[in-house]
Amino acid sequence: MAPVAENVQKVLESVKENKTTVAAVGLGGLAVAGAALYIRRRQLTPPAVGKYPVGTLPADAYDAVIVGAGPSGSVCAFYSAKAGAKVALLDKATFPRDKYCGDAVCTPAIRILEDMGVLKELMDNNEAHFADAGGFVSPMGISYVGASKEKLGEAACCAVKRINLDNRIAKKAKQAGADLKEGFEVTGATFDKEAGLWTVTAASGATVRGRMLVCADGATSQLATKLGYCTEAPRGVCSRAFVEGGTHNANFDGVCFYPKWSLPGYAALFKHPNDELNYCYYLIPCGKAGYCGDVTEADLARLHNDAITKDPFISAALGPNAKLERMRAASLRLGGQGLATTHDDHLMIIGDAAGHIDPLTGEGIHTAMMGGQAAANTLLDMRTTGDFSKASTAVYQRRWMAQYGHDFGLSTKFAELIYRYPIIMDAMASEVQRKGDAFMSKWAEIMTNMQPKTYFFRPDVAAQLGFAIVREVFEQKVLGKADKYQLKA
Ligand SMILES: Cc1cc2nc3c(=O)[nH]c(=O)nc-3n(C[C@H](O)[C@H](O)[C@H](O)COP(=O)(O)OP(=O)(O)OC[C@H]3O[C@@H](n4cnc5c(N)ncnc54)[C@H](O)[C@@H]3O)c2cc1C
Predict the structure, then answer these.
(1) Domain ends where: 297, 331, 365?
(2) In a shared domain, residues 169 and 64
(3) What is the pLDDT of residues 174-218, one digit of tens each?
(4) Is 468 found in the same domain as 382?
(5) Which residue, of 138, 157, 178, 231, has the fewest CB within 10 Å?
(6) Which segments cross the bilayer (predicted)?
(7) What span, in angstroms and rounded, lies between the C-alpha atoms of 334 and 286?
(8) Is 489 part of a structural domain of the chain?
(9) Same domain membership, residue 192 and residue 85
(10) Which residues make beta-bridge pairs with 199?
């Protein structure tokens, strides 16, 4: 029996038994639950009637014009087109194209890729490496590398080069029916309120019209900036360099390194299928304006290059013969930074353009895809109702908030905590050393968004961590535990 019907049955039975007070309380509870369900449904459902039913769309126009064919834009285009919407997917690049990234694709993204049929293509072409042996090194040099896949029942993430990932998602969107226009550099967009239509213009002078505009043009989003929705430059930054396979010493799939001098930022090494490594150094905004902890964007090249030879853990993993390509870098817009909203009349902003990167980890591929899917579902709802107003696009904002947006605030707080009290990371590493893969897999789940950050507050987890912190304080401050994380001369 369904839980609600079961409850009703129980309440009726209790009435029969003359337990009137209990029954009244039960009925009252059901009424409140029903009202809450009704409000929730209303919040996640666009208004029922609108000015622009499908038949009003001019023949040359699209239901949506999506600017940017990265993970957010292409996923949005795929799900919209698959369900019958007419979408244009515009990108200034021609695929396959590179994108500076750590290439760590977390579980929520893996699930979407599987659903799209992209995961199979990646695996069939040996383009994805599922991480098993993984771990981290704490600010005091307490390290753990374990095997979390068995405990989790699946890999927490896999490594896929963006040149392959983005090409396959964009092409999948095209196969689903999206009109992929490559080499289409968008320079502006104007909205005709009367017609309820956007006109999107390219550098070449070409134009595309659509009922809905979806900004998916990445962290520096020129479009969202031009339209006035994004008011700041991104504050985070990250480097990337590939390391040639067979030239390094890394015998793991993925490790994050947390040297204390760049907290809450960190460096990461991730392995690709051909033994190639991806080396990244993330600087995460924290503390004073313009700072990422005690460092700024200007320190990135020094930190990245010094670590290769002087960081005791990174240099050991790379070894003396590692062949690295030159460092490249790109911006990180974390936790919705610089945007007051991600929606308006006939407009949604998704992925990095909306700042949908976790402010603790710097990871945004999975949130880009989840947001892209949420935007597609909202577009499809609006196509049904004909209402593309702010009230309808608000549903997209509620959807991404419910899926991962609430985590952003906690992630920001955790990043600040780690910066101010690195001992928390040491305690975590010590605890993982004691408890092994069972605890490591919990950490992996939280860091890859398989679990929300509120997981830290579960009484059993919080108590375990609290105890670990007390023990670490004692070991460091009273017993004088050695600091093993010092730069080599
Ligand atoms: C160095 C680095 C390392 C990272 N590591 C990881 C990681 O390991 N794991 C993870 O999950 N996340 C990581 N991220 C974040 C991740 O790269 C992004 O969150 C993700 O790419 C967001 O996808 P998106 O589709 O929103 O934007 P993008 O991937 O940036 O795609 C935007 C697209 O818009 C196009 N575009 C831009 N301007 C225009 C225009 N004017 N006209 C037409 N098209 C345009 C671009 O060509 C591009 O194809 C990293 C980021 C950086 C910088």
Answers:
(1) 331
(2) yes
(3) 999 999 999 999 999 999 999 999 999 999 999 999 999 999 999
(4) no
(5) 231
(6) 20-39
(7) 11
(8) no
(9) yes
(10) 190, 209
107 CA to centre of ligand 1 in angstroms: 18
Q: Whose CA is nearest to atom 12 of ligand 1?
A: 363
Q: Considering its fold, how many domains does the chain have in total?
A: 4
129 occurs within a structural domain: no
Residue ranges lining ligand 1, Cβ < 6 Å: 67-73, 90-93, 99-104, 106, 184-186, 216-218, 222, 238, 240, 280, 330, 332, 351-353, 357, 362-366, 368
222 and 347 share one domain: yes
386 and 300 in a single domain? The answer is no
Q: What is the pLDDT of residue 23?
A: 44
How close is the Cα of 217 to the center of ligand 1, in Å? 8
| Same structural domain, 169 and 83 | yes
CA dihedral over 297, 303, 308, 314, signed as positive or negative: negative
pLDDT in tens, 431-463: 999 988 888 888 888 888 888 888 888 888 889
Residue 12 reports pLDDT greater than 50? no
Q: Are residues 284 and 403 in the same domain?
A: no
Q: Domain with 396 in it: what CATH number?
A: 3.50.50.60
Give a yes or no: residue 367 inside a domain. yes
Q: Which of 280, 301, 331 is the last residue of a domain?
A: 331
DSSP string, 221-270: -HHHHHTTSB-S---EEEEEEEE-TTSS---SSEEEE--GGGTT-EEEEE
Mean pLDDT of 310-339: 98
Chain segment 222-245, per-residue pLDDT in tens:
999 999 999 999 999 999 999 999
Identify the domain containing residue 461 by its residue range: 416-478
CA distance 409 to 335: 7
Closest Cα to atom 21 of ligand 1: 365
Atom of ligand 1 nearest to the CA of 268: 8
Expressed in angstroms and rounded, the spacing between residue 365 Cα and the centre of ligand 1 is: 8
Q: Give me ligand 1 centre to Cα 99, in Å.
A: 7
Do residues 139 and 426 make contact, with C-beta atoms less than 8 angstroms apart? yes
- Going from the Cα of 70 to the center of ligand 1, the distance in angstroms, rounded, reads 6
* pLDDT tens string 364-413: 999 999 999 999 999 999 999 999 999 999 999 999 999 999 999 999 99
For residues 338 and 318, membership in a common domain is answered with no
